[in-house]
Amino acid sequence: MPADSDSFDYNAALHACALGDEQALKRIYLQDSKRLLGVALRIVRQRHLAEDVLHDAFVNIWNKAVSFDATRGEGRGWIYSVVRHQALNMLRDRDREVYADEEAIDNMQQQNEELIVDQFELNANLGQLQDCLSHLDSAKRNSILCAYVDGCSHSEIAQRLNAPLGSVKAWVKRGLAALRECMG
């Protein structure tokens, strides 16, 4: 039977919990569990959630009793704040949860499968492009790579390759035509 809350020594019970006295935790539970459940219930608004909060809060009380400092406040207030914080944390965590129906899950799976297929096709196309590039002569291949990979203008390519501007333009034009034909 719970003792009168005026005569119950919360500070001593928390100190005993910090020393590993399981009976002290039981005394706190018997003393205030109904009121603590009420605190949790007012915050989370569902009995089963409030019961989960109370359970987790008592685990925290047990684990963190060593951090209780009687010079900073009363044990009873510390216990109630643990329950309150646990309930608020549960609300925050539940707000972050995303619920998906079966149709949404199916759509996500289909999109993932399409991405895998797209990635496969991209890799296959890159392999084919690399093969086609390897069949070009070095002047055409280097001109195309400078233009499309490095973003160089025709005049910059001419400087890099130490070649006439007209030749570079022709190499790019003929090289692209050869790539289009090869990629088919």
Pick out its properties.
single chain, 184 residues, mainly alpha, Rna Polymerase Sigma Factor, Chain: A, Arc Repressor Mutant, subunit A, 2 domains, 0% strand
Topology of helices and strands:
Elements: H1 10-18, H2 22-44, H3 47-64, H4 75-96, H5 102-134, H6 138-148, H7 154-161, H8 165-183
Helix pairs in contact: 1-2, 2-3, 2-4, 3-4, 5-8, 6-7, 6-8, 7-8
Q: Would you give an account of this structure?
A:
- The chain has 184 residues and is an all-alpha fold.
- The protein has two domains: 8-100, Orthogonal Bundle (Rna Polymerase Sigma Factor, Chain: A), CATH 1.10.1740.10; 123-183, Orthogonal Bundle (Arc Repressor Mutant, subunit A).
- 78% of the residues lie in helices and 0% in strands.
- It has helices spanning 10-18, 22-44, 47-64, 75-96, 102-134, 138-148, 154-161, 165-183.
- Helix 2 runs antiparallel to helix 3.
- The relative contact order is 0.08.
